[in-house]
Amino acid sequence: MHAAPLILALGAAAAPGESAVKQEPIRQVLTDVERNVRVEHWSISSDEVDPAAKAPWRIEKDVLHGGRQEGVDRIRVGNGALSFTIIPTRGMNLWTGQCGDVRLGWDSPVREVVHPSLVNVSDRNGLGWLEGFGEWINRCGLASNGAAGEDKVRSNTGSIVPVQLSLHGKVSYIPARRVEVVVERGEKTIIRVRGVVDETMMFGTQLRMTSETSTEIGSRSLTVEDTIENLSATPQEFQVLYHANFGKPILGDGAEVVAPALRVAPRDPRAAEGGVAGWNRYGPPTAGYLEQVYFLKLAADAAGKSEVLLQNAAGDRGVSMTFSTKELPCFTVWKNTAAEADGYVTGLEPATNFPNNRSFERKNGRVPVLKGGESYRASFTVTTHLDQAAVAAARGRVEKLRTGIKTQLEGAPAADLSP
User: Fold this and answer.
1) Residue 4 pLDDT class (50, 70, 90 cuts)
2) Cα separation of 317 and 49, whole Å?
3) Pairing mode, strands 261-266 and 408-409
């Protein structure tokens, strides 16, 4: 283990009558492949460096042991109101969270944070990705996401050859090559966890994701911001989808998605069963339930900002996602209200594309291309609502976005959205 020193710089003393507001940030590098650094255990808290903080905060880095999670790095962040766990070994994904009495995440049949070395994404005809699926929020991409199956790419000889794509791509099982924690202190104290993940190969994909998850102390929100860069000198396709998964206590019989939907279409005949009008409402855990998936186009404000709310039946607990439809123009709702033992969960999924095979999405103009050296930014914010007033306020913002809109409900899969 290589221990990197904590860089803790304090601002100059305030002049008489001035408020000592601005201080230099705290920085800690936890992983750096260039310097062969990996810090296994590290922590810092407001008790140590900022006893006067408006909310107690703490950051802790450790390594998981036992079973299939042996050797997985974990970073736990608590801002005094919201806590969450980031897994650098798994593409900087968020494993779980907690805000008040609301758990953010779900109970997957996969109980461990499975190490990437134990997951073969090509298993089961490309469904091996599911062997480790248990995150609260995981990225799908970078070269591709969506359904497994065949696509065609240009080989090193210049010929077009078939390749088999796995479900949701590779980035969720790629360890970060650099990880850093930054605590900015001032009028607002903001915790930032940054990571760099490369999906690269010779004669193929050359993409880099620089990720930042940030939260202000005392806040019930966190923001994820990713920059995807083409490291090649030639154009590269990319796709990214954010699979945000929620179970109890927000999900339950009578729970509801509230979205400013311009258009809703079932992915397949299964999703169309019983009529598409119930796409946004949930039933209780049901043994043998088969997933239903819906593709949405969302309304946004003049700046492109949209918001989607998931609320419980009582309307006193909820969570919302805000993002730009200019960055993430496609939205998917995944309903999997199976028995609790089989994973009672729903997914809210903003993305550059719908989660079909890349070949279909390319044909429909939903596979972005980066020129050599070019980059693409995508971000979203997740906010937890802990009472009726907060849920009602979020619902009101969504209702405002869909003022004057009559949602186009497709009774069957649409040819431009589903293969």
Assistant:
1) low
2) 34
3) parallel
All structural domains of the chain with their residue ranges: 7-409
Q: Give the mean model confidence (pLDDT) for residues 114-137.
A: 97
User: At 21, is the pLDDT very low, low, confident or very high (cuts 50, 70, 90)?
Assistant: low
> Are 215 and 75 within 8 A, CB to CB?
no
Q: What is the pTM of this model?
A: 0.94
Residue 282 has pLDDT above 70, yes or no: yes
In this prediction, residue 186 carries a pLDDT of 87
Give Cβ neighbours of residue 45 (< 8 Å, ≥ 6 apart). 56, 57, 58, 59
Nearest partner of 239 among 260, 194, 196, 209, judged by Cα: 209
Are 115 and 68 a contacting pair, CB within 8 Å? Answer: yes
User: Given pLDDT bands bounded at 50, 70 and 90, which one contains residue 237?
Assistant: very high
Q: What is the CATH number of domain 7-409?
A: 2.70.98.10
Provide the pLDDT for residue 16. Answer: 40
Torsion-angle region of 67 (φ positive above 0: left; ψ -120 to 50: alpha; else: beta): left
What are the pLDDT digits (tens) for 127-167?
A: 999 999 999 999 999 999 999 999 999 889 889 999 999 99
Q: How far apart (Å, rounded) are the C-alpha atoms in residues 162 and 175?
A: 27
Q: Please give the Cα distance from 292 to 269 (Å, whole number).
A: 9
Residue 133: Cβ within 10 Å count:
20
